[in-house]
Each structure stands twice: as structure tokens, then as C-alpha cells.
Amino acid sequence: MIELTLPALAEAPLPFVARLRTRRQDDAHRDDAFLCDEDDAGVTFAGAHGLLAIDGMASAALDGDVVLVQPDGGRVERLLRAGSPHNTLLVTERCDQLCVMCSQPPKKTHIDRFALLEQACLLAEADSVIGISGGEPTLYKGQLLSLIERIVAARPDLAFHVLTNGQHFEAADVARLRNPLFAHVLWGIPLYARDPGLHDLIVGKTGAFARLEQSLAHLVMSGARIELRTVLVQDNLAELPALARYVTTRLRFLHAWSIMQLEHVGFARNRWAQLYVNHSRDFAPIAAALDHAKLHGMPARLFNFPRCTVPEQYRYLAAASISDWKRRYVETCGSCREREACTGFFEWHPDAATAGVHPL
User: Which InterPro entries match (predicted)?
Assistant: First the structure.
């Protein structure tokens, strides 16, 4: 697993953002920190905020990374890793839903890092797509939209993929979201079932389905691009074909529909036996949903589904969706000719749930 947080010491007393560089380059920025020393224990950089010593990593692995330095905590967060397509910024850990499978269980407290995250985005590599996640980012909708507006105005080469529960968009947002700046945003929104009661049960919030429908209406009025996300659990497996019919009749404006396998972390860790679906044993409901989506021209994809566990005719839909920093392959994947195109497994996926994996 790639480490995203590293122990560090900094001269500066307050948090700051820096881009780490092993040598000066043509696009030098005032927030760059340059390598000044390296040994077996780690590396030392120097920049506008003074010296920064990072343990446990070689300079070559950090070159170009945009980091958030937290002197009080004695650590740096690698917010934007150079060369990675899987950079996601956590804007809050608060959330107003309590999904049964939540991979990032919410907290009641919120630390406002918007200014620092904006500063980091302005240092991003050219043409980057930056993920924004939570918690629920739109609990701070005003700050979030302002952040996107300012960054895209300054860096029109950047784009964002924002994960949101879709509970907070209102009619008053439509005019603002029609700004062409928001054409740089893809909104990733979860919907788990066509039945309102089942969706509300899964997200732990009464009325969530109805409120989501309202938000989707506002978003489509604004011309927003929307990716619908459906995490597979035992409760919604049989309902997938009905959800496919709903998606293809009521939500034809979607950019894509992603059906996602469960992640063994957060709330799902202790509920694994009640939630996890072994799709290699019962793929029929998933196949029916995919067939219906294809028949009606709805782009559907499979996220977090290892390719060898998917019937051959649907294998092309299984995207390499797991972020590089938390992806692993099991031993038998070593000789697989499709490994590079395969999502593999989450680092914390139970070994017992990899039974049946075989090289293609």
C-alpha cells in the first residue's frame, strides 16, 4: 500500500501547503520546497515556510507531490501525488447520512481546510482530475462551490469529481451551477434502490430518496454531469433490475451508472457477513441490470469487480477502479494477462473472499 501520511518535522508553527521538488524547474512556484538533504532516514526540504524533514521516504518518490504539512501533528499528508490519477481531497468528515456500508464513518467535528485545499489544487499537475470526498462535501456547499469556481477560473485545465449524497441541491443553486466553470465537475451520487424505503434504509435517513430526486431535478436543470453510484449489498442485489428500469426511464440524463462492489472497511468491516455479495456465485441480477442499461443506451460500468470474477461477456465493463494507493493483487494474479486492466482488490479485502480468483 502506498503511504499517504508520513511522519515529519517542520520549522513553521502552523499548517501549510508545499510542493516538493528535488530540483528547480521552469514552473517554480512560491510554495515549492526544494530538496536540501537526504539520508537513509528520510529527506529534508527547504521553502518559504522553512525546513521540512520527512521520514521514511526517498526524495524520488516525493518529487512533485503537493503535501499538507501539519506541524502540530508531526506529519505530512500527500494530498496530490505526482503522476497519480487517484488523488482525492477529504473536505469534511461530517455527514448527514449513516450508510450501512460507509467506508469513511462520519465524525461530528469539522476542521475547515478549504483554503489549504484550494492552495493545493492550484499546484496540481496539468490536466489533473481531482476527487473531492467526505463525509458529505455539500454540508459546506457555499465554500465548496466557491472553491471550484476560483480554482477552475485560475486553472481551466483542471477538473473535479465530487462525491456527494445529493441531499442539499436546491432550486436556488441552478443559476450558479449553469456557470460554464461547473462543466469541469462530475458529480458522483449514490442511489441504492428504486424502492424509496429500501434506499432510505441503506443510507440510514428517512426521506433521503425523495430529497435525492429533488436534487437530481435541480442538477439536471443546471446541466450538471452526474455519475450514479450503486454499491452492491445483499439487500439490493435482487432489486438491481428494477433500479435499472428506473435509471433508464427516469434518469436518462446520467453521464454514467457505476455498480460497485463492497469495500471491507469502515462500517462494512463488522457487517461483512450481512452485506457482502459474492457476485461470482450469483451474477444474474447484475447481468440483468447491465443488459437493460445497454439496451437503453445507458453507460454502465462495474467498479471493484476483479475481471476473472465476472462472466466473460461483461468483463469489458469491469474498470480498474480501485485507487492505486489501496490496490493489491493476490499471488495467482501474477501470471494473468489482464492484470494491468484489472481493478484487483482493496488492500484490506479479506483473503477468504478471494477464493476462485484465477489468471486469465
Answer: Aldolase_TIM, Radical_SAM_PqqE_MftC-like, rSAM, rSAM_paired_HxsC, rSAM_sf
- d(Cα 276, Cα 346) in Å, to the nearest integer? 14
* 346 three-state secondary structure: strand
Quote the cell numbers at residue 342: 484489472
CB 243 within 8 A of CB 285: no
Asked whether residue 102 carries a pLDDT value surpassing 90, the answer given is: yes
pLDDT at site 26: 78
Does 267 score more than 90 pLDDT?
Answer: yes
Non-local (6+) Cβ contacts of 39 within 8 A are: none
Q: Where are the beta strands (DSSP E) in the chain?
A: 5-10, 16-21, 32-39, 42-47, 50-55, 66-70, 75-80, 88-90, 129-133, 159-163, 185-190, 225-231, 256-260, 300-303, 318-319, 327-328, 345-346
Which residue carries 493476490 as its cell?
Answer: 330
Question: Roughly what angle, to the nearest 10 degrees, separates helices 114-121 and 141-154?
Answer: 20
Task: Please say whether the beta carbons of 78 and 325 come within 8 A.
Answer: no
CB 46 within 8 A of CB 69: no
Q: Rounded to two decimals, what is the model's pTM?
A: 0.95
